[in-house]
Amino acid sequence: MIKNKLGATLTFLFLAWLVFACLVIPNLNTIYSVFVQQGHITLEPFHKLLESQRAMRSLRNSFILAPTLSFTVGFIGISLVLITEYFDIKGAKILRLGYMTTLVYGGIILVSGYKFIYGQNGYLTNILAQIFPEFPTDWFSGYWAVLFVMTFACTSNHMIFLRNAMSSVDFQTVEAAQNLGASPMKILWKVVLPVLTPSLIAVTILTFITGLSATSAPLLVGGTQFQTITPMILSFSKSIETYDLASLLALFLGLSTILLLMVMMGIERRGHYMSVSKVKTSVMKQKIRNPFLNVLAHVYAYALFLIYTVPVVFIVLFSFTNASTIAKRKLSFSSFTIDNYLNVFFRQASYKPFLVSIVYSAIASLLAAVVILFTCRILQKHGKKLWAQVLEYSLMIPWLLPTTLIAIGLITTYNTPRIFMFNRVLTGTPFILLLGYFIIKIPFTQRMTKAAFFALDDSLEEAARNLGAKTVYIFFRVMLPILLPTVLGIFALNFNSLLGDYDVSVFLYHPVNQPLGVYIKTLTDSQANADNSALTFVYAVLMMIISAVVLTLVYGRGSNKKLDNSY
What we know:
Elements: H1 2-35, E1 36-37, E2 40-41, H2 44-51, H3 53-86, H4 92-99, H5 107-118, H6 123-131, H7 143-153, H8 156-166, H9 171-179, H10 184-212, H11 216-221, H12 229-236, H13 243-269, H14 291-319, H15 323-328, H16 339-346, H17 348-382, H18 386-394, H19 397-400, H20 403-413, H21 431-440, H22 442-454, H23 458-466, H24 471-499, H25 505-508, H26 516-523, H27 530-555, H28 562-565
Antiparallel strand pairs: 1-2
Helix pairs in contact: 1-13, 1-20, 2-13, 3-4, 3-7, 3-8, 3-10, 5-14, 5-27, 8-10, 9-10, 10-13, 12-13, 13-20, 14-27, 16-17, 16-27, 17-21, 17-22, 17-24, 20-21, 22-24, 23-24, 24-27
């Protein structure tokens, strides 16, 4: 009995420390550091923000990018789902594979791939410049370049969640509308799309938030004429004189994110569209009867396929090409080599960033899986108590805030010894990046793990308890084996997303232990040579392989398909 009370007390103290020291205090300290300077309340950061042309331009650019990105991504995303799931398009399975390439590579690697193809010295740009001598080689930069890259980079949510929502469409309602003489477009607009509306609204708001906090695309292809909030925060955070501006912009970004998520939650509470049929039938793919429209749809589908797959194909091909050929942007079988891969695997300077990211990602994902596993067990047992509800909502804080604000909060809070962090300075140490990785993965891990817990059959635990089994034994020998496939799947997804992270890493990394995302950014700078480009391609291929394996393990097994539906 004493052991149980001691264990419960230690667990409660640990969770209280986790919430306050890692989730609450750093963000409150960011607010304090902005509006309280030298012991006095001040609005000076607001004046500096209004007077800074760069800061105001970044705000304007972000609020131009976010709504237009929501529209373009929504249009393309719905198109992808309709092409692969609703209309009868030849080669739909191959098209689906092409459209889902963004699931195996993204972030700074995806942007670097587009830059290599379309950038100032890009493969396609050089071809166009040879054909048209007056062709401007800097055409792929600025707002339209950022919008183009992010439009095709941000359709992953549509290919996962909107495709799942399509399975909720009851074909009996489609047949009924056909029997009543409704046109195909009217059926699509009045019958099919309403069922997709909840998922579509959710992914649209998430896309809007992604546009507000865009980092990689504005940095690599935005050029000096189009920088958004997050790159400007990164720039301001490097100087003591402008650090309060960086914090204020991060707060503004956080407030915008919270408001948008509140809007999404309000829309969800208003109700859902669903089929009222007792026996659902799966949607049968619809033929496009008009020959001209059918041809147009096929051309459009395969044009999108090329946009998605061409960067991937060239990344793979150039990863096996020597540096001189890469510099010339010309493919040749005579230049085929595996030296690029040998350099990554056998040169410390090349494999260290990859190794650093693997270690950080694995440890952070493991910590998140273990801590949240025990936390969800507590929530399962005491979920109706007030303190448990406070704990559950507190763990969702990182989901309400942009990663930029979280990173700024950790830096400003732990640049001096704090008693609640055992009087340790974390800023500038290798540990702070691990803490940042762990924090940003808490909400996703908590939501997925909780869903798995509440899907368990309560009779199993009751039967074990009736047989005299103790609580610890029941957890490890009865419940954990059932939960383990889901927990491993969550671990794999977290590991996969952290492996090439740039947004958090660029603020928190230690110079001695440079993670892969930051290292790739240095390789993709305009002054980088062909050897560095070759390394970037190899890293991209290796990460695509790892991502593909992870997705196969997670989504290719029946036991883990529930991960899709847990969002």
